[in-house]
């Protein structure tokens, strides 16, 4: 979950100590760890991926030039990166989505291709060029003309980035094939990526874009990319020739954490629990919750109601009423501000209106933090008001025992029995929403595919 905003350190009058010199690779490494939840320790998975990297390096266009080393990032979002230093990063969310060794190899080969093809440097050059042109247009011509030029340059950079993706796809497919892997793994993973995005859209509707940065932001899985990846693979071999090593891959990721890091907050159905900050609350009936680094978001599937929970360190206002009225909420109705008690915690509620939306707001104080719950509805009916207030009143502190007992989800690999079906295996899934759809997604099964007795499958368990 989000980290509370921290005020800047006090001024001491002394000049700051000079920073220690770090190379760019070390700085980028720390930035990635900070942005994506730190490093996740999974030795079996790391060793397995590093062995794949050795094969990819030997099969690349520049064998021996770099020694690649994988770092697994502790986040459920699906993403991967490679740095010119040879550091390669995959998230545990990506490990859960990939179905076999060839798919994991395809992702890593794609990221390595971005490095070997100098895409980062070329894109930076394009962006600098765009900035110079837009600045010149703003100075020489009108402000409106400058905005038009900026828009054109943004489109130019975006188009260039799409071509980079296609080039990296083609290079990656060729490299994994030379390394002995199934070249169709790239197309399968791109297909899974698209299905993952569609499932998120079905669950969270218009709010999905604000719920976390994942690989779809910069690597969109379009039909064009899938078809081109298949086309490149067909030029190499027929399907079923290269190594997939599904069994070895599943054994390597068995037990890897799935979903939210429990110490950073996790969702179970409509309930959100944060063991480290020691609180929990439950959303109204029909809401789907998702945790992110910024806040907890929720939507009702009709898309006419939403909620957000975040926290800030207590800004030391004279009172909670003064804080609510300090201007951080637009359209506040001052007469609606009311002081209440929420399970022994001081709180205030209020109503705000902005455009067609109505907001029921609650600010709850617990220790040094203020927790801000905002419920939004097109129409704040008596029923909606009742449900929102009932949800606010579920907010409470966790006991030390409850905080210690918090546990997350993990990937478990099981063998299908003779009588098993997709539905029977999905029934073992512990996911916040739609276990059947997630079971099919994680195992690369479309709606027409069934279970094969003796085959191994991924499920999510506690």
Draw up the topology in text.
Elements: H1 24-35, H2 43-59, E1 69-73, E2 80-82, E3 87-91, H3 92-97, H4 101-116, H5 119-140, H6 143-178, H7 185-204, H8 223-236, H9 246-253, E4 257-258, E5 266-268, E6 271-274, E7 279-282, E8 287-291, E9 296-300, E10 305-313, H10 320-324, E11 338-342, E12 345-354, E13 357-366, E14 369-377, H11 382-392, E15 396-397, H12 400-404, E16 409-415, H13 422-426, H14 435-442, E17 456-461
Parallel strand pairs: 1-3
Antiparallel strand pairs: 2-3, 4-16, 5-6, 6-7, 7-15, 8-9, 9-10, 10-14, 11-12, 12-13, 13-14, 16-17
Helix pairs in contact: 2-4, 2-9, 4-6, 4-7, 5-6, 6-8, 7-8, 7-14
Concise summary:
The chain is an alpha+beta fold and 462 residues long.
Number of strands: 17
Overall shape: it is: elongated
Give the low-pLDDT segments: 5-14, 121-134, 136-160, 206-213
Number of helices: 14
Structural class: alpha+beta
Work out the count of structural domains.
3
Strand content: 15-25%
Widest β-sheet, arrangement of strands:
8-9-10-14-13-12-11
Estimated radius of gyration: 25 Å
The residue-averaged pLDDT reads 83
Summarize the biggest pleated sheet.
Answer: 7 strands, antiparallel
How far apart are the first and last residues' alpha carbons, in Å?
A: 19 Å
Q: How helix-rich are the residues, as a percent range?
A: 40-55%
GO molecular function: metal ion binding; metalloendopeptidase activity
Domain Peptidase M48: 46-229
Protein name: M48 family metalloprotease
Cofactor: Zn(2+)
